[in-house]
Amino acid sequence: MGGSPPLKIFDANAVRHGLSVAGLIPVMRETMIELSSGRVRQNLRSFIGLGEGRTFAIMPAAFGGQGVFGAKLVSVFADGTGRKAHEGVVVLFDGETGAPFCVADAGEITALRTPAASAAATEALARADADVLAVIGLGRQAAGHIEAIAAVRQLREIRVWGRDLLGATAFAEAMSARTGAPVSAVGSVADAVRGAGIVCMATTATEPLLAAVDPGAHINLVGSSGPMAAEIEGGLVARARFIADHRAHVLVHGGEFLRAKAAGLVGDDHVVAEIGEVFAGAAPGRTSADEITIYKSLGHAVQDLAATEMLYRSSV
Known about the structure:
Elements: E1 8-10, H1 12-18, H2 21-37, E2 40-42, E3 46-49, E4 54-63, E5 69-78, E6 84-93, E7 100-105, H3 106-125, E8 132-136, H4 140-152, E9 157-161, H5 165-179, E10 183-185, H6 189-193, E11 198-201, E12 218-221, H7 234-239, E13 241-244, H8 247-253, H9 255-262, E14 271-274, H10 275-279, E15 293-296, H11 301-315
Parallel strand pairs: 1-7, 8-9, 8-11, 9-10, 11-12, 12-15, 13-14, 13-15
Antiparallel strand pairs: 2-4, 3-4, 4-5, 5-6, 6-7
């Protein structure tokens, strides 16, 4: 950059207005290729427990050479109603001067980059004729995933499920109005996934909600980001072609995979590839029409840094 750039701060509103899910999809694709190719250095995330339902996490990463480096600092607090609030900041440092030059609201960055990454994975792994989407969960990630998947697939039907059917109905109506897509609420997880070619799990569940999907379905596992929670049963993990966003993290923090491994259903080699390897053509994605594929998303600092750098660049 030459010299120390002035520090810019983007609050939640500025992030919302400066970035879009659709615009981040190609950025997430390229970023995950860089991660899998080794052009990014990224440590395992570090957690500090602050009491029941409260965690502080530190997620550092650095692009190669004199590229941007930085971290996401985030708190995850349960609100007592089954939801969790993510609050924090993403901080970027200049690779030439070592000076911080950008701070952005981490909650908003996460709300955008996560569904964008899932959409990129869906584009690579879901069947080309998949036109029914099931979304399990009613939060911001559920909403973001509807928008993101609709950007990479022509959807004939979108079904949503949440523990509160009235809430699910209101959510479906709101998403229909927001996207113009046909969104409807259903009464069970089984009803949601029946016939769905794409399934997005975006919940705060600690115990599995899903045991089976149709042959040929693709699943984005998004809600569980630590080793103590799982959104799907181990048997479904074992039956699927399991692709990680980042292998090293999934082997330590991927709750669904770890439960299946502890039950003796899979070994470490069940993580057949990273999504960046699939994007780069270094590993196959889907290998048959009837194969079930899983993309396990834990979310990574490199995604946060890339999204924040895009925000910064678009503002100068």
